[in-house]
From TrEMBL:
Pfam families cross-referenced by the UniProt entry: Abhydrolase_1
Keywords in alphabetical order: Hydrolase
PANTHER family linked to this entry: ALPHA_BETA-HYDROLASES SUPERFAMILY PROTEIN, HYDROLASE
UniProt xrefs under Gene3D superfamilies: alpha/beta hydrolase
Species of origin: Actinoplanes oblitus
Coiled coil location: none
Domain AB hydrolase-1 residues, every copy: 22-263
Name under which the protein is recorded: Alpha/beta fold hydrolase
Length: 279
């Protein structure tokens, strides 16, 4: 893995493929890391410059100085691409929180986005796992985030996948390593507070963000796993309504991360859209 300094913060990234090829950017969810996209690098880097990164304050990246919000994360990701010398329009793919960040990036600088792929994305409903809601309770959230260990980490990982075989020792070890980073708990709580609270995902930012995207028609694919325990698959209907021009797909017997559970099928759905843009 490599690091680049962005506005004084160390940001971790992984890059494969030809640097001259069209760029693909892969963004993970809240409290996660670029490892959530590792299976997709080899499925795209034969024709694309594939970049995944730990968003500021997550994974092994340092935070940005300002309190962490969607606009701060989006701005930090754009600045990271600039630092990597990538200023061409990118194919954005975002999972969960990464989907909301991708939409925020599109709203802020639409000319730098070629396509948008939303994977079990935040932003389409108030329903969210209770594990995220309780983080809003004073004191409890910070205590929970500081108590991610070899007992609790596997339980969290099991909520992400329909196939429990994917809860590997490596994923559990990475979750614990991430939780021990000094920025992990503060940034996690800042984002959780910015997006909602005990009652679920707040409607104000969702409404404003989707309204800002109404006139920005880009080739878009929306996918979901029908057994998602974090953001329910019923949100797909709202996502289709918000992006009437988009293609969509529901993966059967799949959890919160189709890019991991259904790597070949996922890539097979996305690649035709990317290829159409190049024609």
């Amino acid at each position: 893995m490599n690091y680049v300094t962005v506005r004084g913060s160390r940001i971790r990234f992984h890059e494969t493929g030809d640097p001259a090829a069209p760029p693909v950017l892969l963004l993970h969810g809240i409290g996660r890391s670029l490892e959530d996209w590792s299976a997709q690098h080899s499925r795209f880097d034969d024709g694309y410059r594939v970049i995944s990164l730990d968003m500021p304050g997550f994974g092994l990246s340092q935070r940005m100085p300002a309190p962490t919000t969607l606009p701060v994360l989006a701005d930090g990701v754009w600045a990271t691409l600039d630092a990597l010398g990538e200023t061409r329009p990118v194919h954005l793919m975002g999972n969960s929180l990464g989907g909301a960040v991708s939409m925020t990036m599109l709203a802020s600088v639409p000319e730098r986005v070629s396509t948008l792929t939303l994977v079990n994305s935040a932003g389409f409903g108030k329903e969210v796992t209770w594990a995220l809601r309780v983080l809003a309770l004073p004191g409890l959230g910070r205590a929970m985030l500081r108590n991610i260990n070899r007992v609790s980490a596997p339980r969290v990982e099991r909520t992400l996948f329909r196939d429990r075989a994917l809860v590997t020792p490596e994923r559990v070890a990475m979750a614990i390593k991430i939780a021990r980073q000094p920025d992990f708990a503060p940034v996690y709580l800042e984002v959780a507070k910015a997006l909602g609270g005990f009652r679920g995902v707040a409607p104000a930012w969702r409404t404003a963000l989707l309204a800002s995207l109404a006139e920005l028609v880009k080739p878009t694919l929306i996918v979901w796993g029908d057994r998602d325990m974090i953001l329910p698959s019923t949100h797909l209907a709202a996502a289709r309504a918000a992006f009437p021009h988009a293609k969509s797909h529901m993966f059967p017997n799949t959890g919160h991360m189709p890019q991991i559970e259904r790597p070949d099928e996922f890539a097979g759905l996305v690649r035709p859209m990317l290829a159409e843009v190049a024609v």
